[in-house]
Amino acid sequence: xxxxxxxxxxxxxxxxxxxxxxxxxxxxxxxxxxxxxxxxxxxxxxxxxxxxxxxxxxxxxxxxxxxxxxxxxxxxxxxxxxxxxxx
Length: 87
What we know:
Layout: H1 2-6, H2 11-20, H3 26-31, H4 42-56, E1 80-81, E2 84-85
Antiparallel strand pairs: 1-2
């Protein structure tokens, strides 16, 4: 329930991850707000992380309360991750 509440824009994607073992790519994580940016190099990533930590000091918000709109969870007839059957 936590991912659905924290990143409601990702609800459909989370359902696909559960039902189909779909992987989330970096751009999808940015699109739903789970990741703030993607860096091209390791050094850029470290710099960006340090800037983000400095920006967030004292500004962390809690997880929203209240009902969460979760899309209907539809299990496919043959749940698979690629060609592998899921159990």
